[in-house]
Amino acid sequence: MDITALTSRRFLVPGLITLTVLATLPLYGSLYTVILITTILMYIILAVSWVIFSGPTGYMSLASAAFFGVGIYTAAVLMPNTGQLLPLPVVVAIAGLISGLLAVLVGALTLRLRGIYFAIFTFGLVEIIKQVLLYWEFEVTHTRGRFVVLVDNDTVFYIMLGIFVALMLTVYFIRRSKFGLALQSIGENEEAAAHTGINVTMVKVITFGISAIFMGAAGAIMATRWTYIDPYIAFNPLFSFMPVLMAIFGGMGQLYGPVIGAAIFAYLQETLQTTFPYYYMLIFGIVLVVAILYLPNGIVGLIQKLIQRWRKGGSAEQNANT
Amino acid sequence: MDLVTILDIAIGGLLMGGIYALLAMGLSLQYGVARVLNIAHGEFIMLGAFATYTLYTAFGINPLLTLAIVGPIIFIIGFLLHRTLFTRLRISSPSPGAFESRSLLATFGILFIIQNLALIGWGANLRAYSYLNFGVNLGGAIFTANRLVSLGFAIGIGLAFYIFLVRTRMGKAIRAAAQDPATASLMGVNINRVLAICFGLGAVMAGFAGTLLSMRVPINPAMGMNYTIIAIIVIVLGGLGSIPGSFIGGFILGIIGTVVTYIEPSLSLAAYYFIFMLLLLVRPKGILGK
Questions:
Q1: Global pTM?
Q2: B212 in any annotated domain
Q3: I want to staple A104 with a disulfide (CB 3.0 to 4.6 A). Which of A165, A209, B118, B146 is the partner?
Q4: Which residues of A touch B222 (CB under 8 A)?
Q5: Which of chain A's residues have a Cβ under 8 Å away from the Cβ of B111?
Q6: CATH number (domain holding residue B160)
Q7: A174-197: per-residue pLDDT in tens?
Q8: Could you list the residue range(s) of the whole structural domain that residue B223 is in?
Q9: Mutation test of the interface with chain B: which of A64, A292, A295, A297, choosing the one with the most B Cβ atoms within 10 A?
């Protein structure tokens, strides 16, 4: 993945403008807009976090739902509606750390596996956590579901925005660091990277952990908006596939690919779900197949192709004129 | 634990294992040969089960006869799916690894499409019918006749398929394509056609498993996923791409599942995952993998 584009100045100004527009949104936006943008930000966080790890390494992780769900559950345990144990930002941070630790543990165990085995394993991880939690809740704690403290929409929005900004800064600094260089060389040729003295497994495990921190934090804050949590809601496998789909749909060649993909998809999802509740998943499936078939490089790839064609067309015209 | 209980668990495990074996052989063809890890595999089980249910309840057609109707229809669906979608993906993907992950995602799309079409068509309720529903006494343990018949058919279909692979020209082409698609294609095997046939046959196996399954368990449109997961576990257990491995692995997992269900029913799915993850870590090649 090439994130160098972000380091260039031309993204600084639009980035700052977007940030200002977003930060002042609750002042002029309607309640619905704030909630919608929060959801979109959540999906952007999931998609970009997924790309941090799976983009350069080529491992297809389907564990996003596990890390997201661990965040949700952490919030459900630490902030029950019967009495909040810790302040919200602390809970979000703890949720992120627990998810990160889980990822490091899982990564250390499994990142030696070949690509497809890793995908299957991470998918199984979501299910096994769900099954064990279901058993635990049913047999030991005797709770069917948990209720979470209600937090007002603006606070949820600002924390989500904070996680988003932190994620973007992390991506930027990883990119500028030696660590990012190591990560990129692993993506290009793992064996060669190992020969130059990079501890390949270590870099992969740490990256996996970093990506999980943001997913867990996003899960914790979403839990306060959903207010009712059970293992089926928290560990919905859709949250593993959505980030992958959004990243591929947007295009992984540039950082703004997953961001655009997630924004478009989250918006489509919200509108489709309300207008066609019964056909929503069907349409989703069709879009998924079509996107994989016709947009192998995503929207970014399509845009680049169009720009290229337009430039070529322009230069051909110039040639004709002279 | 007395002898009858042990017999009960052992035969119960074989009965479950027969279906698992069939399922896994289908997925093994799709993944081992066509390199498509078909997450929508379970949806073909669901389609087979619902076709059988509909034909039996609406037209009174014998569920065992529907095997002959379901088979060709699902084969055509699978064949065309590979011809239109996966062949194209295979050609346009830069590397085999890229093809594997892109086709995996595409099968998720197919899963959503099939499952939701079935939901629109049949509704979300559990459905069941009664066929050959009487007890047979086997050495003290009692099993319903439909389970014994489905085990017999599962083994019969499995063996027939194995003979097809080993003895026929097409079987040879399939085995060659499994070993090395590029070389097989140089030797005059029409690789796109063979892979599409493999995918179609894999879907047929799932459809057959669905028909047999519908005789003894209630069915609904969301039933597929669990069977897909079981099939994946079995093919990893037996060794990816090894047809006899999937067959044996199916029976092993069936017996393990029955034992765990006997001890603690709510943990059987968790136990499957646990075995599976342990297996991936300890011996990712599977029991018969090379």
A1: 0.80
A2: yes
A3: A209
A4: none
A5: 285
A6: 1.10.3470
A7: 888 889 888 888 878 888 888 888
A8: 3-282
A9: A292
